[in-house]
Automatic annotation (TrEMBL):
HAMAP family registered for this protein in UniProt: PRAI (MF_00135)
Family: Belongs to the TrpF family.
Pathway: Amino-acid biosynthesis; L-tryptophan biosynthesis; L-tryptophan from chorismate: step 3/5
Name of this protein: N-(5'-phosphoribosyl)anthranilate isomerase
Length: 213
């Protein structure tokens, strides 16, 4: 099994982005959704992206943003990848000259494979927990047994992950990547460097890698 990739989402401070990078995270997420307690301004995002070391991917999270709004943000912030958490169509997710992830919120009875197939251009499919009226960042896990084996896209597992359950999640689901936000926070939008390190350690333990790697 290849090493699972790790994304630390909801970054609002340069020091938290650097803590994630130093711990071994592959990507950090920046939330461009005003209703989120983890939302960042363009100025914050620019400073965070500028501080990132090489080979750490910056991901911008959007919820039903207009093409005008998204274009203005991309003109100002050199994001590497986009992540769509709303009701965006495949057409709405494309055309930005960047790879994108499409987030799907999971609840019993969903045909996840069929929904994922609606986004053939997605670099990956992110599965999160369905909570009515909340597009993501709920801190709640969903039933991983609902995940189909025929997504045909790299799977990013999100929703209620933390150091105490991520090793089990990786071994059960075998995702391409895991995405955590609330599970490594001191408070909403403020990360805890030790929680980040503990999360990464548990991911690597699931991979069978030593902490020294």
């Amino acid at each position: 099994m290849a090493a699972v990739r790790i994304k630390i989402c909801g970054i609002t401070r340069v020091e938290d982005a650097l803590a994630a990078a130093e711990a071994g995270a592959d990507a950090i997420g920046l939330v461009f959704y005003a209703k989120s307690p983890r939302a960042v301004s363009v100025q914050q995002a620019r400073a965070i992206v500028a501080a990132l070391p090489p080979f750490v991917t910056s991901v911008g999270l959007f919820v039903d943003a207009s093409r005008c709004e998204l274009g203005e943000i991309l003109d100002a912030v050199p994001l590497d990848m986009l992540q769509f958490h709303g009701n965006e169509t495949a057409e709405a997710c494309s055309g930005y000259h960047r790879p994108y992830l499409k987030a799907l919120r999971v609840k019993p009875g969903d045909d996840i494979a069929a929904r994922a197939a609606e986004y053939p251009g997605a670099a990956g499919i992110l599965l999160d927990t369905y909570v009515e009226g909340v597009p993501g960042g709920t801190g709640a896990a969903f039933d991983w047994s609902l995940i189909p084996h025929d997504l045909r896209r790299p799977l990013v597992l999100a929703g209620g992950l933390h150091a105490g359950n991520v090793q089990q999640a990786i071994r059960q689901v075998r995702p391409y990547a895991v995405d955590v936000s609330g599970g490594v926070e001191a408070s909403k939008g403020i990360k805890d460097a030790e929680k980040i390190r503990a999360f990464v350690r548990q991911c690597r333990a699931a991979d069978g890698q030593s902490e020294s790697m």
